Amino acid sequence: MRLVDACRLDPVDRTPVWFMRQAGRYLPEYRAIRERYTLIEICALPEVTLEVTLQPVRRYDLDAAIIFADILLPLIPMGAGLTFAKGEGPVIANGVDSAGDVERLRPVTVEQSLAPTLEALRLVRAELAPDIALIGFAGAPFTLASYLIEGGSSRRFLRTKRFMYNEPAAFHALMEKLATVTADYVASQVAAGADVIQLFDSWVGWLGPDDYREFVLPHMPGIFAAVREAGAPSIHFGVDTGGLLGLMREAGGDVIGLDWRTSLAAGWAAIGHDRGVQGNLDPGVLFAPHDEIARRTRAILDQAAGRPGHIFNLGHGLTPETPIDSLRVVVDTVRSNGTSR
Questions:
Q1: Entry pTM
Q2: Closest-CA residue to 236 (of 156, 152, 142, 327)
Q3: At residue 312, what are phi and psi to the nearest 5 degrees?
Q4: Of 211, 198, 237, 226, which Cα lies nearest the Cα of 316?
């Protein structure tokens, strides 16, 4: 598989390409399913998850499918009271505001509590062509912790930082609980058929290097070790993490994902060429004319310079308004220009 080979820094015939949030609201076939099911209902029904996961693979010549799920699913069996409010995103009814709240979070038996996602992985792997990789994923502990503490999405993460600074022992206990669940979850995903695991630390870019080293780094290596011991490579992605790349490398991951705020060449130099990189087209470029999309795509491939270990992706997920034809331009450009030496 191109994607697996690239994760392991092996030469490939062309750069593998997939897109974060590639199964989602920009596709009319997905919107038709969402008229019948909520997001959580889709995730609870393996056959529907199968269909949604395969939709972008059928439409585009992609090198991977990523299982349709949500990074917050493990919080449901932990007792967080997760719902998705229309127009507002995730809402946590039973959040974390004290050490007692941390203690009340329930342990999770992944094989039972997250069984629908694991079954969906098995179904998708059976349907995919042998050369197309299946990506499983999970949210990293800091990002999950921020949702629990903030009670949902946030713009500044002030409640999270206040808890972190004022209750450091409780914060570390929370991170440890989340890291344990996450390690079990990603290992179970590999056992169910995932060929690669991506760990999303979507909001860790709000931390400075000192806070990352103290509060995040100790809880990360065990998760990547669980993926490695299960037999799969891993991708470690965060948003606005240009100042944390060295620490993210230390935390783990065979491949480090870059957002568009850091050039691919500079990011790879900071990470080191003994790791792969993923990225990093600005999702906003997909709204440009097609010749500009192709030019920007080629520019990223030029920065990769044909070195083994580059996976082409966006610097963040697709937006619901993304023009469908724009993705075809990216895929065709990568197919015709992206080769490793």
A1: 0.96
A2: 142
A3: -80, 135
A4: 237
Question: Is residue 37 flagged as an active site residue?
Answer: no
CA angle, 157 then 163 then 166, to 5°: 135
Catalytically annotated residue among 14, 25, 249, 307: 25
CATH number given to 2-337: 3.20.20.210
User: Which sequence spans correspond to the domains of the chain?
Assistant: 2-337
Q: What is the model's pLDDT at position 241? A: 96
**Catalytic status, residue 70:** yes
Catalytic residue among 34, 159, 213, 228: 34
Q: Tokens 């993304």 belong to which residue?
A: 322
Distance CA 146, CA 157 (A): 7
Sheet of 276-278: strands edge to edge?
A: 64-66, 133-139, 196-201, 234-238, 255-257, 276-278, 310-311
Whether residue 34 lies in the annotated active site: yes
Neighbour tally for 28: CB within 10 Å:
9
Q: What one-letter code names the amino acid at 42?
A: I
For residues 53 and 68, is the Cβ–Cβ distance under 8 A? yes
CB-based burial, 191-222: b 16+ in 10 Å, e otherwise:
bbbbbbbbbbbbbbbbbeeebbeebbbebbee
pLDDT in tens, 142-192: 999 999 999 988 889 999 999 999 999 999 999 999 999 999 999 999 999
Backbone angles phi, psi at 146, to 5 degrees: -65, -40
Confidence of residue 84 (pLDDT cuts 50, 70, 90): confident
The overall average pLDDT reported for the chain is 96
Q: Given the residues 26, 30, 63, 70, select the one marked as catalytic.
A: 70
| Better-scored residue on pLDDT, 88 or 93 | 93
Task: Show Cβ contacts of residue 256 under 8 Å, excluding neighbours closer than 6 positions.
Answer: 235, 236, 237, 245, 248, 249, 267, 271, 275, 276, 277, 278
Query: Which residues partner with 216 through β-bridges?
Result: none
- Exactly one of 147, 184, 254, 259 is catalytic; name it: 147
Q: Does residue 147 have an active-site annotation?
A: yes
Q: Where are the beta strands (DSSP E) in the chain?
A: 64-66, 82-85, 89-92, 133-139, 196-201, 234-238, 255-257, 276-278, 310-311
